[in-house]
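Notebook p. 47: complex prediction with iron/sulfur cluster.
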Amino acid sequence: MGEEKTLIGNLNQKLQWVCLLLTYRCTSECSHCFTSSSTHKDDPMKLSEAQEYLEEAKRVGARRVWLFGGEPFFYFDLLLSIVESAKQLGLEVTTTSNAFWATSEESAVRRLCPLKEKGLEYISFSADPFH
Ligand code: SF4
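Predicted complex, structure tokens below:
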């Protein structure tokens, strides 16, 4: 019998990362934005949807999840819950933000500490003259 090749089987061998785009809403409207995010959109992913995607990702062998948008920090409670769900599944979690919420050390700590407690391991910032 020949080797059975399925989409899931192939993913199982190769998939490392899964990216969840939590929203197309952003504080900016950068001309280079590859998700065409904007200030007018208000369309967060539902927590139940995100949990389904995370479970599926885990099933097919993913080890890490990257949460971005748009600006995932617009829906901070949702972000916290998704980080927690991913961590419970044993996934490594990272996110990206343009840091619009980091207007002072105090406000930055107010967001970053709970995320770290829920299991966030990495964060990258899209904050430069192009954003
Ligand atoms: S800050 Fe990032 S997500 Fe927001 S519009 Fe610019 S490139 Fe897109």
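Notes: The chain has four helices and four strands. The helical segments are 7-14, 47-59, 76-88, 105-118.
Next step: compare against the earlier run before touching the bench.
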